[in-house]
Amino acid sequence: MTRRRVHLAAHFPGVNNTTVWADPRSGSQIAFSSFAHLARTAERGGFDFFFLAEGLRLRELKGRIHDLDVAGRPESLTVLSALAAVTDRLGLAGTVNATFNEPYELARRLATLDHLSGGRAGWNVVTTSDAFTGANFRRGGFLDHADRYERAAEFVRLARRLWDSWEPDAVAADREAGVFVRPGSIGEVEHRGRHFSIRGRFTLPRSPQGRPVIIQAGDSDEGREFAAAEADVVFSRHGGLAEGKAFYADVKARLARYGRKPHQLKIMPAATYALGDTEAEAAENAAVIRRQQVSPQTAIAFLEQVWGRDLSGHDPDGPFPAVEPDLSSDLSQGRVAIKDRAGVAARWRALAEEKKLSIRELVIEVTGRQTFVGTPQSVARQIDEHVQAGAADGFILVPHLTPGGLDDFVDRVVPLLRERGAVRAGYTGTTLREHLELE
Questions:
Q1: Has residue 259 been placed in a domain?
Q2: PANTHER family of this UniProt entry (predicted)?
Q3: Among candidates 124, 154, 153, 127, which has minimal Cα distance to 142?
Q4: Is residue 179 within 8 Å of 205, Cβ to Cβ?
């Protein structure tokens, strides 16, 4: 069997509790130096791309900003354009919402980044239907939940038409005349669809990689179908071996009906890690990180999101509350909605009773844990084994510290992955598509 190469990327979260602000080693979430340090570290490790999240509205709980969840993130494409000047090969991907942008404008901004970076741009396509986020925009929460991916698919296809509307040799150079456009080399794009109606010519020629790489993160059935039809990379939440293999097989199997082959879509789950000189030290480091990420206030906030009740009077390190959830109430805004809150509440209570967990311990238990925990040698082995077993094509690492969260991984794990032949020794191409081995 052909050995699979491990693809690596780095993710800088936007608005959540992954990043630990209170750690003394944590730096600014806004200063350009933080972004530059993370990006340069990822490039030093030979990562395929650096990936910025986006938050269009600050999250609220009981009508107040939950300050432990707020990163104050600057606009992604502006930051990535600046990073293009301080990196040479690293792909630069940004999350940009397909619900509150327009195809022509966003296609032009992404094409600009692609040119400035020499063909290293990527777009993580996200959607939203909640009126809370929409209130920041002229149209408000106009989009029905069921229409999110329909609009996104039309958006992406139209953006591709705009990027492809210039012939490859549209721009020519002449010593006397300078740079000019060949007559008839720029096609007019006319589109009449349910969500968009445009007619005109695109203002930028094709970039060195032709068009930006499309990334997608939805996990619903319609999200998986959208990925199979339109995406180049899937940012998956399924990092475990068994669930990863199931997700991988499901999405790859959908590609054939769109005339695509398995290698044309890379599945890269989000992954966290905790290292130690011994397995016991790594496990202790992982436990410390999780307690930092789930502060007492954050633990109460997570439970209130499910319970629909003010639980601020409860001790987060005390027993699980006896009060039943109020399923008619929703105290949080701007977060991903929790489906089947009654079922989630029942499972959480049962788990807390079975393991005798406090509120904080329960939230730590149910909100995930480090994907890879161990010595550098064992983490390198785990990552490689996941990819060779068909659970992923690689991983998008999510560090818990800014800006130095990737340093240990690049210094201690990447060399071991290179020794195993799992990752390349250095960049062999210049564009993001070349890094990802996409056609």
A1: yes
A2: ALKANESULFONATE MONOOXYGENASE-RELATED, C2H2 FINGER DOMAIN TRANSCRIPTION FACTOR (EUROFUNG)-RELATED
A3: 127
A4: no
Among 439, 434, 431, which residue's Cα sits nearest to residue 92? 431
Q: Give bridge partners of residue 270 from the DSSP assignment.
A: 396
Chosen domain end from 346, 366, 386: 366
- Among 310, 342, 366, the domain-final residue is 366
Q: Which domain covers residue 22, as residue numbers?
A: 7-164+190-277+370-435
Same domain, 25 and 122: yes
- Considering only CA atoms, which of 229, 266, 290 is closest in space to residue 93? 266
Q: Do 18 and 107 lie in a common domain?
A: yes
- The count of domains in the chain is 2
Tell me: do 196 and 67 sit in the same domain. yes
Is residue 304, in this structure, part of any structural domain at all?
yes
Alpha helices in 26-100 (DSSP H): 32-44, 76-83
Strands (E) located in 184-228: 188-192, 197-201, 213-216
Output the tens digit of pLDDT for each of the chain's 439 residues: 578 999 999 998 766 778 888 888 989 888 999 999 999 999 999 999 999 988 787 777 788 877 666 666 789 999 999 999 999 999 999 999 998 899 999 999 999 999 999 999 999 998 887 778 888 887 666 677 778 889 999 999 999 999 999 988 887 776 666 777 777 789 999 999 999 999 999 999 999 899 999 999 878 898 899 999 999 999 998 888 999 999 999 999 999 999 999 999 999 999 999 999 999 999 999 999 999 999 998 899 889 989 999 999 999 999 989 999 888 877 776 566 677 888 999 999 999 999 999 999 999 999 877 799 999 999 999 999 999 999 999 999 999 999 999 999 999 999 999 999 999 999 999 999 999 999 7
